[in-house]
Amino acid sequence: MDLGLTEEQQMLRDFARDFLEKECPESYVRDMEDDAAGYSPEVWHKMAEQGWMGLIVPEEYGGVGMGFLDLMVLIEEFGRSIVPGPFTTNCVATLGILEAASEAQKQAWLPAIATGEQVWTLAFTEPSARFDADGVALSATRDGDTYVLNGTKLFIRDSHVADRMLVVARTGGEGEDGISLFAVDARADGVTHSPIVTVASDKQNEVRFQDVRVPAGDLLGAEGEAWPAFQRVSRRATVLESAYLVGLSQMAFEITLEYTKERQQFGQPIATFQAMQHMAADMVTDVDASRYITYQAAWSTDEEQPDAGNDVHIAKAWVSEASRRVVARAQEMHGGIGFTKDYKIQLFFRRQKAAELAWGDAEYHREMVGEKLGI
What we know:
This protein is α+β, with helices and mostly antiparallel strands. Helix content is 51%, strand content 16%. The chain has helices spanning 7-23, 26-34, 41-49, 68-80, 87-100, 103-114, 227-262, 274-302, 308-334, 345-357, 362-373; strands spanning 120-123, 139-143, 146-157, 164-170, 179-185, 191-196, 204-215, 219-220, 264-265, 268-269. The strands form 3 sheets. Strands 1-4-5-8 form a 4-stranded mixed β-sheet, with helices on one face. A hairpin with a 7-residue loop joins strand 6 and strand 7 (204-215). It is globular. 46% of the residues are buried.
């Protein structure tokens, strides 16, 4: 496996960095914390004009036709700028469509996603706080040419601004049997979105389904057989979250490094102090190791290697804790002001926590590795 970027990926990274520095400065991130939608449609459409919404959508559906590893490069840049809004969850829903939808469904849904006309999100997690099939309790019962959905999804990102949701539901059976995927109108009768207050000030919701009718034609794949496809989607989603944390950690380090060069104590920059240099060295180690292990997991997943699932668990476990160490050291090196909202570093500290918990924290993924090894 070659961990170096291709020329095309380097161009994508450099352009994305320049674009996001201009369109997503600190002031924009702060403004979106208090914005009801949590993102600017104007910025969203500018991103769409760059082809980012359709980056992994094949050309026959109106997309750019690039690969998963290219998306990883882009998501890392989103982490550097801690971009607010539904981009990542929109990408995860797109992966779900590509993985499980019929040709007719792809033709119907993907073009609108690729142009940025529609926003999609994924609705998987529930009050059980589980990431396995046993955690799916939301029911979908067949009634003629429709399915009736009842239940609750929790911590659903940006559902309040989504046009449609890719919903994981149970159509019968136990465990992995009976899991189905549905494309649901986010504003359908019986769907309610209740905002959840989070430390990151991101937009997560409790979504309730009460007798929500979904056309049978909006079922992706065969009824009750969606879990294997969803597992492949969840692995990619977990890797994307790790890539976001890599970019976030890298930028937290760079901000802190610049601060230590400017902050004077005892007549000299605090960057000259050995204690600061030791912490900075630890941060670099964590960031670089996180990048390598994440791209290993991305490659393994994209190539559908036999150990792809385990590689993803290892990566998310490491990156979750490494990124937490990086932002904690960043605040230590800023001193007491690092915890105040006047300084930029706290934005990274708070968003790290949200990404650390998304798709499972380090403890969860270590347990999965332990099960794989029979420990």
